[in-house]
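Re: weekly structure request thread

Next one in the queue (244 aa):
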Amino acid sequence: MKLTIIGFWAGYPKANEASTGYVLEHDGFRLLIDCGSAVLSKLQNFYQPEELDAVILSHYHADHIADIGALQHARLIQGFLGKQMNTLPIYAHDAHSYEFSKLTYKTITKGITYDPKAALKVGPFTVRFLLTKHPVTCYAMRFEVDGKALVYTADTSYIEEFVSFSEGAELLLSECNFYGNQDGSGAGHMNSFDAGKLATRANVKQLVLTHLPHYGELQQLVEEAKQHFSGQISLAHTGQVFEI
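Done, posted below.
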């Protein structure tokens, strides 16, 4: 598996950057995980919209889905220009039926409901889900292929179920919207101490902090997470690639 960070900011993108979006690739299959503000713009530095094979969404907050419409129109226009492509599947939960309905657009994209209680096969990936603790319905995801696993927490405050869900993952892509001395649980987010403790308890090999705050010195998040996790820790940044 190869993970490319497209966007990593919480809430809204900083200037010339993007909020949440990642591409997970294996054997030429390219899966976009979430598609927040400015993701389409940054994506084109690495992949073209018509090169995606599928999209999967954790929830319907704007910093995770704002560029779905832009992606749909990009593929529409590229079709007008002669590019041949299949209908792009967008996997998502249907707890919010109006938002889900917008995922299907002409023959360009088609919304497909995932069952969070069952494993989902998307290209080469087996995806499992965990309901997170967030103000809206949101699912964390565990992606597995060839005996390797990547866990994406999506948006959530700390819950005990994450330990078994993340167990032994090669990479934990963990939200980290608050500093260690802050309690983000009321907002449905984790802090740096939460991320570090989870990484240790789940015995993951590598921790990547994402969904980052817009204030403070971000390197402090790493130093705080290190107080609880002795493995490799990285701050997400655009264009960062992890081979798993």
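DSSP finds seven helices and 14 strands in the chain. The CA atoms of residues 31 and 150 lie 13 Å apart.
Next request, please.
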